Amino acid sequence: MSEPIDRPRRSLLTGAAVGAAASQLLAAMPAMGQNFGASNPAAPGYAWRPPALKPLQPLKNVEAGVLDISYFEAGPIDGPAVLLLHGWPYDIHTYADVAPWLASAGYRVIVPYLRGYGTTRFLSKDTVRNGQQSVLAVDVIALLNALNIDKATIGGCDWGARTACIVAALWPERVRALVSVSGYLIGNQEAGKAPLLPAAELQWWYQFYFATERGRSGYEQNRHEFAKLIWQLASPKWNFTPGVFERSMAALDNPDHVAVVIHNYRWRLGLANGEAKYRDLESRLAGQPAIAVPTITLEGDANGAPHPDAGAYAKKFSGPYEHRVATGGIGHNLPQEAPEAFCAAIANVTRA
C-alpha cells in the first residue's frame, strides 16, 4: 500500500526512460501509488532470478579517501549509476537479488562494503576507526570521486539508508534520486541522549550493551550469534536459510568491524567522541536538513527493528516524494526480503 501524499507537490515525475533495457523493467514494474508486496510480485513479467546463494562476485577494489574499498559492480559502464549501501549486521548480499536484476536492466550497479565490513580496509593503521554518521557519507563521496561518477541514484537499508540520506541532504548535486528503507534516518547526537519510553528503550537493548566493555567483548567473541539474533528480531517473519545467513557472516570478520560498530553506537549516545574535522558536517546534520532530491521511502509491514513512523518524517522530503509499504511479512532487511519492491522503487525514482 502507499501512504497518502500531497499529489500536486509530492508525486514523482515520470520523465524519460533510462534506456531500452531499463524501460523493459519499468514496464513490468508498478506505477507510482500502486500496491505491491511479497504476495503480489512487482514484476510479474520479469521472472529472471540469479541462482540461489550465488555470491556477489568478482569484487573490485579502489582507494578512496582513507579506505581501500572493496565493491561489487555489474551492468554497463555507461548505464545510469546506482549505488547500494548495506547496513548492520548485514553485508553486500542485502542486494544479492537486486544488483544482478538492475544490472540486467541496464543500470551500472555498485555495491560497496562499508568501512569495517568484508574486504574493505583502512589504508593506514593510524586512522581512527570512526563510525560516526557523517564519516560513512564522506566515504561514499570519496568512492564516487574515485570511480569518476558525477551523480548516482543511491539506495540504502539500515546504516546504508542513514548514509544515503546524509549524502542526499549534504551533497544533493551528487544524487540523482534516493531510495531509503525506513525513511529519514539522519541522527542527532544531542537528541540521542534523551531518554525514551521504556518500551522504546527495550528495542535498543544492544545499544546499551555496546556501551559497556562487557558488550564490546561479547560482540567480539560472539558476533555471528549476535548477528543471527538481530536478523531474527528485525525480520521475525523472514525464514532465511543457514546458507543465506552464513554467506553474509564473513563480512563481520573484518579486523576493524568491532571497533567501527562499537564506536558507531557509543557515538550516538554521546559516550564516544567524533573527530573534530567532521564537526561542521555533524552540526549541519543536527539541524535535520531537508532532502530535495526525488525520493521513495520503503517500509516492510513486519519490521521488527526500531524505526520511525512514516508520518513523522514525510515533511523532511521537500522534493518529489512517495512512501511505500511492502506487504507479506517483510522485515527490516527489505531489499533482500522483497527485491521486487526495492527494484521497482529504484527504477521508478530514477525516472523522476
Q: What's the quick description here?
A:
The chain has 352 residues and is α/β, with parallel strands linked by helices. It has one domain (7-351): Rossmann fold (3-Layer(aba) Sandwich).
Provide structural commentary.
The protein is α/β, with parallel strands linked by helices and 352 residues long. The chain has a single domain, classed as Rossmann fold (3-Layer(aba) Sandwich). The protein is 38% helix and 14% strand. It has 15 helices and nine strands. The protein has helices at residues 7-10, 20-28, 98-104, 133-146, 159-170, 189-192, 198-203, 205-210, 213-234, 242-249, 257-268, 279-286, 310-313, 334-337, 339-351, and strands at 59-64, 67-74, 81-85, 108-112, 121-122, 152-156, 175-181, 295-300, 321-326. Strands 1, 2, 3, 4, 5, 6, 7, 8 and 9 form a nine-stranded mixed β-sheet that branches. Helix 4 (133-146) packs across helix 5. The longest helix has 22 residues, at 213-234. Residues 1-11, 13-22 and 30-48 have low confidence and may be disordered.
CATH T-level topology: Rossmann fold
Strand and helix order: HHEEEHEEHEHEHHHHHHHEHEHH
The total of beta strands comes to: 9
The figure for the number of domains is 1
So what's the overall shape?
globular
Q: Tell me the helix content.
A: 25-40%
**Overall pLDDT confidence:** 89
Query: What gap, in angstroms, lies between the N and C termini?
Result: 20 Å
Can you identify the CATH superfamily?
Alpha/Beta hydrolase fold, catalytic domain
